[in-house]
Amino acid sequence: MNKLWLNLGKSYIKIGEYQAAIEASARGMKEEPKQPDYYLLCARAYMKLEDFEQAENSCDIGIQYAQAHIGEAWAKKLRKELMAEKSHIENEYQKSKYGTFSS
Predict the structure, then answer these.
(1) Which of 30, 54, 61, 62 shows the smallest number of beta carbons within 10 Å?
(2) What does the pLDDT look like over 33-85, one tens digit per residue?
(3) What is the architecture of the domain spanning 4-97?
């Protein structure tokens, strides 16, 4: 795995350049669509922007790619990781929308 786009995207997130991180992750997705790290990076950058819909969409792109290649060994791992991330995004969305309750 060439980590150029992944490392660049992570660096952009660290300095708060979320749109640049999204662009770097999109380049990585095009070059290495089997790697979940790019979809996750993109989703997390959208989460920083509080754009939950686009964060989920980033996961959906990878999930659809995995489903189109269901017979491949890597497809199950890709789908599993992205489904877990979608669940996390939904939880974060609910927290942001409704707040968290404490007893």
Answers:
(1) 30
(2) 999 999 999 999 999 999 999 999 999 999 999 999 999 999 999 999 999 99
(3) Alpha Horseshoe (1.25)
